[in-house]
Amino acid sequence: MNLKNIRKDFPIFRHHNALVYLDSTATSLKPQSVIEKEVEYYEQYSANVFRGIYKISERATSEYKKTREIVAQFINANKPEEIVFTRSTTESLNLLAYSLGRKIVNEGDEIVSTIMEHHSNFVPWQQLAIENGSTFKVINVNNDGYLDLDNLKSQMPASPAGRSNIKSAAKNSNLEKLKQVITRKTKILALTYVSNVLGTINPMKEIAAAAKKINPNIMVIVDAAQALPHMKVDVRDLGVDFVAFSSHKMLGPTGVGVLWGKYNLLQEMFPFNYGGEMIQEVYVDRTVFKEPPLKFEAGTPHIAGVIALKEAIHYLRSIGLDVVRRHEMEITQYAINLLLSEFKGQLRILGPRDVDHRGGIVTFTFANYHPHDVAQILDEDNICIRVGHHCAMPLHESLRINATVRASFYIYNTKDDVEKLVEGLKKVQKILR
């Protein structure tokens, strides 16, 4: 990648020349083409979709539908109708907890998630279990930041490079560890593809295959918010049932989420919201809903944001997700090496050390300095990092850590950004020591 040219595509760097943005896990920066596409809608064809039979409304509808087609191609969905637009990954997962979970999970059933989940893929399932008397089970992580499923490798084919995190030292050829968690009573397995704290890339294809071998009827739900912007995700190849992700983490606008689901499963689910555009017919005594995806898209959507999402996908495709992934691995490895060499014995990095098994996320604790103090001092030098629980409090509690510092990388980050982070941490040391 030509990083100088890429950085020129992001106007925020013109307004903040010294900006070191290391918080793309929270939200990515936006290229000019995405900003212009959103403005284009408001300036040229600002009308509602599906409803108007006049030119600018038809233009808006056409652009909106085109995004659905492009998203479907991007993740290799079977057809565009499997793509549901929501407001966020959070809403996509809550939609599933409401429309799927309340349909198939009953008292005495089980829901399985992991300790590394973002609250959005933890709390909805926890609350569903509390509500209906089902059992909520949680897979833990080991000391290296991997899910505690190290026997899986001998059962499942290896993932492509950079997509598997199962340690090579599998000791036997059985699924006993997974069977301790997933049973015939397990209706839902909900887990993240890439941890927003540990950076761990979970072996999604292997886990899904193993879970369905134990229970063919289990629904596998994937939070791909931290995966899809950074590496190729083929939903059909994964062998899962639902995938949720967000526009704003992949260079697109905020306020747009995506839910992919197998079409026959979407057909069987009941709507999440009721209102305009999801209606086929309404009578005094009954209502007929439209087919998916419109059944789940009540009300006026974030039209401009959805239309601009396809420009974000065009931009990522122009670079190539393989190139994006290689760049992040290089930057992440450089950051890990430099941090550990400059702050020996003072800095603890969470998650796998092997960058083949982690995303572009480096989360750490720094001596006994409070992360909020670290963030404040770094901000004085225009270095943007994230501190706290990162919406993953159960994970932090299991690690016995109150809060952490997180630096995350994307296509516009350079080794110079990493070096500035290190110099900033030296300044933290000098002030707080």
Automatic annotation (TrEMBL):
Cofactor(s) the record lists: pyridoxal 5'-phosphate
Catalysis: reaction(s): (sulfur carrier)-H + L-cysteine = (sulfur carrier)-SH + L-alanine
Domain of life: Bacteria
InterPro entries: Aminotrans_V_dom (IPR000192), Aminotrans_V_PyrdxlP_BS (IPR020578), Cys_dSase_SufS (IPR010970), PyrdxlP-dep_Trfase (IPR015424), PyrdxlP-dep_Trfase_major (IPR015421), PyrdxlP-dep_Trfase_small (IPR015422)
Keywords in alphabetical order: Pyridoxal phosphate, Transferase
Gene3D superfamilies assigned: Aspartate Aminotransferase, domain 1, Type I PLP-dependent aspartate aminotransferase-like (Major domain)
Protein name as annotated: cysteine desulfurase
Source organism of the structure: Candidatus Roizmanbacteria bacterium RIFCSPHIGHO2_01_FULL_39_8
